[in-house]
Amino acid sequence: VKWSPRRLLYLILWGSTLLAFLSRLHFLPGWFRFAMYASAMISNCPGVMILGKLFSYHFTRTMLGELSAACLTTLLVEPVLRWIERPLRHLPPQEAAPQVTRRALLLGAGASTGLAGLGAYSFAIERKRFEVTSQALYLPNLHPKLDGLRVVVMADLHCGPVNRPGDLRPALQLAAQCKPDLVLLPGDFVHLSGDYFAEAAELLSLLKPGISNGILMSWGNHDYWNEIERAYQTLSPLPLHLLRQQRLILSPGRDFEESGPGLALVGLDDLWEGKPDLAQALRGLPAQQPRLVLCHNPDCAERLSGGRVDLMLSGHTHGGQIRLPGMGTPVLPSRYGQKYASGLVAGPNYPVYVTRGLGVGGIPVRFGVRPEVTFIELRSSQKGWHWQPLERVT
Ligand SMILES: [Fe+2]
After folding, report:
1. Do the bridges between strand 351-354 and strand 343-346 make them parallel or antiparallel, or are there none, so unpaired?
2. Torsion region of 318: left, alpha or beta (phi above 0 gives left; psi -120 to 50 gives alpha)
């Protein structure tokens, strides 16, 4: 067989697509399955980006989506290959062929070296450069005894073959340095296998919030995809509250109650895999009672109404993981473009804070989107709802 850039490229493109199909075989080791679908996402990335924008990121993770992405990528790379392989008119045919090969080799070598360097940085360095963002949230009607409440939000641990406990532990140490009273965790604790709930539990046991049992969590799509019933077995013994369409009230005495005055903490179900219902979760709360809502997928802000929300806390998009100059985030698992990439967003009915998360999913890199531990200090306000960035608290 005579090798050429064309043959090599198509072997990688279609070979990785085939392997991505096989990554659904659950008996294979987790790291191997992750490598298989991540390689397909990288080699088919032009098709994945376009289909993600046209339909949804969720579609690109289906078999039909993977097949469509490979076909679309083939259509896009074919003209480039033809340009590289075009004969040079000013040379006789017998001399043109070696020239073409040399040009293709130089182009390929330059591009591969650059990509390999960027990939190594994005995988080994930026993925682990955790950052604390700090802000104050001024809430009307917050009880004076809850003024100054320190809250840490962390989403998307994605414990799994890539996000190892040793990678994530520095984020939990940063969270501890924030001296939180409460820790809120809006979903996606594992990646690829329910086995990793044990690692998530081990990491969460390191959290010691000031309020006893002060860890509250809700579920994400990856928790559903990976044996969520095992999550209940593994995480329930820990001193935390699992909120699926449930709420608790943090009383002025800083205890958790079923009802009464204080701060309402509400956990909604996941949008893709569960049945989130905001109106049901808020029903019966006094109209002026301050409330924070944990909801993994920020698209919920566009879809769910039926009650006042002071702030929805979400993750899911990971900030897009990759942010390119002038292009933004090429792939974002949201139906609303770049709107819910990260940070404070004004939803149609209430504000949402989208944290960039700790781990990675899809492809195992971050570039221009550092992982985030979110710190929020709650303050009572006479002047209405107000949000203010703070200097670093750690
Ligand atoms: Fe996630």
Report:
1. antiparallel
2. left
CB atoms within 10 A of CB 176: 17
Q: Whole-angstrom Cα distance, residue 301 to residue 313?
A: 10
- Other Cβ atoms less than 10 A from the Cβ of 64: the count is 10
User: How many A from CA of 106 to the centre of ligand 1?
Assistant: 38
Q: Is 113 exposed, middle or buried (0-12, 13-18, 19+ CB in 10 A)?
A: exposed
Query: C-alpha distances in angstroms, 118 versus 98, 121, 217, 244?
Result: 30, 5, 34, 40
CA distances from 32 to 22, 39, 63, 300 (A): 10, 11, 18, 33
Ordered DSSP codes for 32-72: HHHHHHHHHHHHTHHHHHHHHHHS-HHHHTSHHHHHHHHHH
Distance, CA 186 to ligand 1 centroid (Å)? 10
Residue 251's region, left for phi above 0, alpha for psi from -120 to 50, else beta, is beta
Residue 6 has pLDDT above 70, yes or no: yes
Could you tell me if 241 and 256 are in contact, meaning their C-beta atoms sit under 8 angstroms apart?
yes
State the distance from the centre of ligand 1 to the C-alpha of 82, rounded, in angstroms: 39
Query: In Å, how far are 241, 244, 256, 384 from 213, measured between CA atoms?
Result: 7, 17, 9, 30
Ligand 1 centroid vs 361 CA: distance in angstroms?
A: 6
> What tokens were used for 320?
């897009």
- Cα(379) to ligand 1 centroid in Å equals 29
pLDDT tens digits, 81-97: 888 777 666 666 666 55
Q: Name 339's Cβ contacts closer than 8 Å, sequence gap at least 6.
A: 345
Give the residue from 347, 386, 313 showing the smallest Cα distance to 152. Answer: 313
| Whole-number pLDDT of residue 299 | 96
| CA atoms of 82 and 105, how far apart (whole Å) | 15
Q: Taking the complete model, does pTM exceed 0.90, yes or no?
A: no
Centre of ligand 1 from the C-alpha of residue 358, in Å: 9
CA dihedral 272, 230, 20, 269 (to 10 degrees): 10
- Would you state the pLDDT for residue 358? 98
Query: What residues contact 119, with CB distance under 8 A and at least 6 apart?
Result: 365
